[in-house]
Specification:
By secondary structure, the chain is α+β, with helices and mostly antiparallel strands. The protein has four helices and twelve strands. The longest helix has 16 residues, at 155-170.
């Protein structure tokens, strides 16, 4: 009774199908202002109409929704719900919060753009993404996406060089981060 699109077979030669917007909207309501998904139908003894759909999938905070024994990332489901199509690239959370699935917080991004909007790694010693100081040197090295941009005598000059290069390369996807 539901609309699925055939997408080929899996290793067991079982026909795989992909969730469509039509079926999704029969099962789930998505509120683009809050980013919350709720069930429109009873799904089991425990999952009832009106209950929140989805759960936290990992320690990284991304939510997932299980529909007919298939897990989907909630931010990708939001794209299908709103546009009728699955995103062709990655989905970036503009504010960096993987649990915030408000429509205004989601945008398609390629891998480099998405990586630019990630949080700073815990092992970062300089306190600034793309800036590091080689042992025994009085210079700060600036890199964007592994490409050497500059060597600067002060942290302030290094921050300015990184900011300019990252803004030129990533535009709206560049988000300044400090420790």
């Amino acid at each position: 009774p539901y609309a699925y699109r055939t997408v080929g077979t899996d290793r067991s030669n079982t026909m795989k199908t992909e969730l469509t917007q039509e079926k999704l909207k029969e099962l789930i309501h998505y509120d683009p202002k809050t980013g919350v998904f709720t069930w429109l139908q009873n799904r089991s003894d425990k999952v009832k109409e009106g209950h929140p759909a989805g759960c936290k999938a990992s320690s990284r905070g991304y939510k997932r929704i299980c529909i007919d024994y298939q897990n989907y990332q909630a931010h990708r489901v939001a794209f299908l719900y709103m546009t009728g199509k699955w995103p062709t690239n990655m989905v970036d959370h503009i504010d960096g919060n993987p649990s915030n699935n408000k429509w205004s917080n989601l945008r398609q991004a390629d891998a480099r753009q998405n990586a630019q909007n990630k949080a700073m790694q815990r092992n970062n010693k300089s306190g600034h993404i793309g800036i590091w100081q080689p042992n025994g040197r009085n210079q700060w090295v600036v890199q964007v996406c592994g490409k050497h941009i500059a060597s600067c005598p002060t942290m302030e000059e290094a921050k300015a060089a990184y900011h300019k290069a990252a803004t030129d390369q990533f535009g709206e996807f560049y988000r300044q981060k400090e420790a």
